[in-house]
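Homework help thread (please don't just give me the answer)

Our assignment gives two proteins as sequence + structure token strings and asks us to describe the second one. The first is just a warm-up. Here they are:
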Amino acid sequence: MTFALWLLIPVALVLGVGLGLSFYLTRRHYPAEIHTPAEYGLEFEEVPLRTADGLTLRGWWIPAPGSERAVVILHGHGGSMDGDVHRAPMFHRAGYGVLLLDFRAHGRSPGRLATFGYRERWDVLAAVEFLKSRGVQRIGLLGFSYGGMASMLAAPICPDVHAVVTDGGPARLRSAIIGRGGRTGPAERDDGFPGLGDHCHHLGPPGREPLPLRAGALGGANRPPPHPLHPRRPGPILF
């Protein structure tokens, strides 16, 4: 009996740590700071974004008069659009409309469960559909970490996305968990990108030219440089 109890202790510890980590990673997050585009002199509209599974997300739409181009800015895990609004003026000055949103279970948006891109891709698709309803014809995604994951998962199933920039968006969920856990060693390189399945080789629907993407880890002196998901093209990518 005593031996059986000793066996149960490590099992209970593993289950407890697993449940605790799961709760920490998937729990909802409220805004840690409050900002609006008005702080930067930008006129904006608070807009609802309806997802395919019935959620109504909250977003800010900053139009650029006379422009048919827009950028969707996608925040990181635990963040909100408040923390990224300072990026909007640069794009607005360049003639782009800007759409910021709170992912499900983040900020002002409803939801209780963060899914690291699996359902958040529907959030990105909702943003794209909104932009199309406003007459935007050329759409780019700018995702940070968690938002980068969502953008990479949404782009292959959304032909209306013309460009993707992912800053620190891991192509494998394991990389995201390790990074969130504070790993400081060299980043693991895996050219197979099995976390993205078949999309890792062709980020775009059949018959469409692959999207030019790059993914990698930032912020560590010992980490290798980002490596391409698709071969780099010469010169900037305009959309």
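The one we have to describe:
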Amino acid sequence: MKKHGFMHRVLSYICIPIFAFSLTMCSAGLETTPAPQSIPAPPPIKPPTACGFGPGDVACNFKLVDQNDTVVSLYDFSGKAIVIDFSAMWCGPCQFAASTVQATQEKYGENTFAYLTVLVDNFEGEPPTVLELQQWANHFNITAPIMSGQRDMLDPTGENGWHLNYWPTFVFIDYDMTILEYMDGWNEEILQEKIDKLVLCELKQA
């Protein structure tokens, strides 16, 4: 697929207006204070034998292929503050969120923070290929990890998979791999505020 064709498809799906202080989302089935650049992080943590998907649980591991055709584990980023962005390529708000990914990653630095995008659907509702991940990364100028997910990772109840009812859904994970909170839909100000608190260890468990 040629790049201009991909861009046309992206633009054709951005059809949802964004209003100030509103969350934008697709159905699945404040002024912020800059955070410090250097916060000591604990050493990497091994994946646990007991894990879960809800706030207060130690996050379950996953291994997915990224835009560099490399298998990436969630626990590769243990010891950092982590945001997982579960998105779909056809979702307009997910595309707005993608436009802010790299700036957010660079704001906090790779030693402190990891912004992980998991694209679950391509434009046809299938798991994205490596080529499609690369097209997404190139279009939105993202070097942070973008991975191809599957719908069987997800569970609308949150009991047997990552809790997702809307696109995008964000998961905030503490330095010790504890899930702190989920956020449905996208609002840049609210998301940045939550990430500031996450990096500063001020985001509390729901």
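TA reply:
I won't write it for you, but here's a hint about the kind of observation we're looking for: The chain has one domain: 3-15+53-199.
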